[in-house]
Amino acid sequence: MTSAPTTTTAGPLDVERLIQDLTLEEKASLTSGLDFWHTQPVERLGIGSVMVTDGPHGLRKQDTSADHLGLAESVPATCFPTAAALGSTWDVDLLRRVGSALGRETRANDVAVLLGPGINIKRSPLCGRNFEYFSEDPVVSGDLGAALIEGIQSEGVGTSLKHFAVNNQETDRMRVSADVDERTLREIYLTGFERAVTRAKPWTVMCAYNKVNGTYASEHPWLLTEVLRDEWGYDGVVVSDWGAVADRVPSLAAGLDLEMPNSGNIGDAQVVEAVRSGAMDEAVLDQAVRRLLTLLSRALPAAAEPSSYDAGAHHALAREAAAAGSVLLKNEPVDGAPLLPLRAADAAGVLVVGEFARTPRYQGAGSSQVNPTRLDDALTAIGELTGADVSFAPGFTIEGVTEGSDEQLRDEAVEAAKTATTVVVFLGLPAADESEGYDRDHLDLPDSQVALLQALAEVTPRLVVVLANGSAVALSGWEHLTPAVLETWLGGQAGGGAVADLLFGAQSPSGRLTETIPVSLRDTPAYGSFPGELGHVRYGEGVLVGYRYYDAKGMAVSYPFGHGLTYTSFEHSDVTATVSGEGDEVTVTVRARITNTGAVRGAEVVQVYVGDPESVVLRPERELKGFVKVALEPGESREVEVVLDARDLSYWHPTLRAWTLEGGEFLVSVGASSRDLRATVSVDVTAPPLAAPLSDDSTFGEWLDHPVGGELLRAELARPETAGADDQGNLELDETMAKMLLDMPVRVIANFAGMLFDRDGLARLLDQAQERSVRA
Question: Is the full-model pTM beyond 0.85?
Answer without folding.
Answer: yes
